[in-house]
Amino acid sequence: MKMSNMLVSTLREVPAEAEIESHKLMLRAGLMRKMAAGIYNYMPLGLKVLRNIEQIVKEEMDNAGAQEFLASAMLPAELWQESGRWDAYGAEMFRLKDRNSRDFCLGPTHEEVFTDIARNEIKSYKQLPLTLYQIQTKYRDERRPRFGVMRSREFIMKDAYSFDKDQEGLDLSYDKMHEAYVKIFNRCGLDAKCVEADSGAIGGSNSAEFMVKSEVGEDDVVFCTACDYAANIEKAPSTPEKEQVTELKEIEKVETPNVRTIDELIKFFNTTAKKFVKTLIYNADGKIVAVMVRGDREVNETKVANALGGVIELEMASAEDVVKATGAAIGFAGPIGIKVDELLVDNEVSNMYNFIVGANETGYHLSNVNYGRDFDGKLGDYRNITEGEICPHCGAKITISRGTEVGHIFKLGTKYSESMNANFIDEKGESKPFIMGCYGIGVTRTMASIIEQHHDENGIVWPISVAPYHVSVIPVNIKDEAQMKVAEEIYNKLKSMHVEVIMDDRNERAGVKFKDSDLIGIPMRITVGKKIAEGQIEFKLRNSSDIEVINIDEVYNKVKNQLD
Ligand code: ATP
Ligand code: MG
Fold this sequence. Notes:
Keywords: Aminoacyl-tRNA synthetase, ATP-binding, Cytoplasm, Ligase, Nucleotide-binding, Protein biosynthesis. The chain is built from 14 helices and 31 strands. With 564 residues, it is an alpha+beta fold. The chain has three domains: 16-226 and 400-452, 2-Layer Sandwich (BirA Bifunctional Protein, domain 2); 252-380, YbaK protein (Alpha-Beta Complex); 471-563, 3-Layer(aba) Sandwich (Rossmann fold), CATH 3.40.50.800. The strands form eight sheets. Strands 3, 7, 8, 9, 10, 11, 12, 21 and 24 form a nine-stranded mixed β-sheet that branches. A five-stranded mixed β-sheet has the order 16-14-15-17-20. It has a five-stranded mixed β-sheet with strand order 28-27-29-30-31, with helices on both faces. Strand 1 (32-36) and strand 2 (39-42) form a beta hairpin. The two termini are 22 Å apart.
C-alpha cells in the first residue's frame, strides 16, 4: 500500500492517559484510539496486526483439530440462569433489556452458549470428541480497566470448548490445546510461560495459565529456582514455618490505646511481626468470615474463597460488620469471643506459641495466646507463599515475579453439562453428561504483550510473524523522478512476491518517514536515495542499527531471506 493513501495517525507526543509502554506505543503508532474507558477503536494498522495474530491462532486451532464457530455476543439471561451464573457473575457483566423487558447480557465468556450448542447438536458418543472455537468480542465491566487493551471492557478473545465422553478423552483434548498454545505464543514471538493456576469462579479441577513476565502485570507468579515448577500465587501452596516448642504461658490482657496496625504493635511491644497473629474480617457472599495469619503474612483470598466452597464475592467486611463481630473499634479483632460465621486459621498459626492478638475490646490486645488451648478454627493454607520459601515439587527456593495472563486452559469436567443437562448417549446406551474443557486466549492482550516484549526507545519492533507490513520502501525525495522510479519498481516487485510492503510516498522529510517506520515497527526498511546513481540502495532491519548498502537487485533475496 502507498502511504499517501493510508490513514497514518502517528503521534510524536506521549499521550498522558497511557502508563505502560505498550499502551503508549499503541496510541503513538496509531494502532488504536480510545472511545470510552476500556473501549477502543482499532485503526487500520492495529487491525492488520490483530488479524495476523488471529490467523496464527486459527491455524494452530485448526491444526489441533478444533473447528471454528461464531456465537452471538448478545446472550439471553435464561442460559445464564440455568448455570447459576446470571447472579454469580456480579457487576462485571454488562446487562441489558430488550423492548419487552427480557433480560440479556453481552457475553463475558461463552461456556453456557457452547454447552447449549452441544446439548442440542450432539446426541451420541460417536460424535465425540469435539472441540469448537471462536474468535469473538467479549464484554466485561472491569472494576479497573487500565493499560489500554491489557485490561479493557471490550476485548477480543479466542475461546474454545472441548466435549469428550470420558476423563481420558478430556486429558487428550486438554493436552492438544496446551500444545497449540505453546505454538501460538512462539509464533507470535511472545515468551509466555505455562503456570499452574486456580480454577477460580469457573470452577473445575485442573487449570493452567500462560503468563508473560511483566513489571506491570497484575498477577504474581511463583517460579522454582531449581526445577520447572511455576504457579500463580493464587495456587502455589505455602509451607508453614515451625516455631520452637515452648511452654504455654498465661494469657495477659494488655492495654494498647490507639495501637492498631501491625507496625504500631511492633513498636509498642518492641518485638517482630512474627509474634503477632492478625485477624482479618471478610464478607463472603453475605457471610462474615474471619481469617487469621501471622503478622507478616498476606491473606490469599483465592485460597480463602476455595475453602469456603467457592465464594463469588469476597471483600473486606464493612466497618459496621467488623464492629458487630468484635464488639470493638477497628484494629482490635482477635479470635477469642469473636462472633463470625466461620473462623479460618492459617496452618502456621498452630505452630506458633504465646502470640499476640486483638482482644475484641477497644484499646486492648491479648498476649500469650495459643491455638488449640484458647481458640479453635478451621486450619488450612490461607496465605500467600513468599519469596525464598520452598518449592512444593523439589524443595528448592522459589522466586516471585509479576506477570500478565495471556491464555488460560481449564478442565471443566461436568460443571456446565450437569447444571445445564447437556448429555449424550454412551456405548451402553446410557445418558451421560459431556466432559468439558475450555480454553481462552486474550487476542488483544496478546497484541499489547508482544509490544511490551518487543520495543525500544524509537518504537515497536514487531516480530515478522505479526508485523502490519514486512517492508517499508522509502524514497528520500519524492520529487526526484529517478528515485521514485526505482522505489516503485522495488515496491511492485515485492508486492508480486506477496511481500506485505508499504511505500512511504508522502511528501515529508526522510527523517519523518524513518521515524514513523521505526515507531510503527516495520521489520525491514529500504531507503531509495542518491546512491541509485551507483545502482545502490540502503537496507536496514528494525532490530539492528546496521545499515547495509546493497545493489538494487540484491534486495529481493535479502527480503526473502528475512521472511523465511
Ligand atoms: P484476569 O485475571 O486477567 O482478569 P481472567 O482470568 O478473568 O483474566 P479468562 O476469563 O480466563 O481471564 O479469559 C481468558 C483470557 O482473556 C485471559 O487469559 C486474558 O488474556 C483475556 N482477558 C480477560 N479479561 C480481559 C480484559 N479485561 N481485557 C483484555 N483481555 C482480557
Ligand atoms: Mg478477569
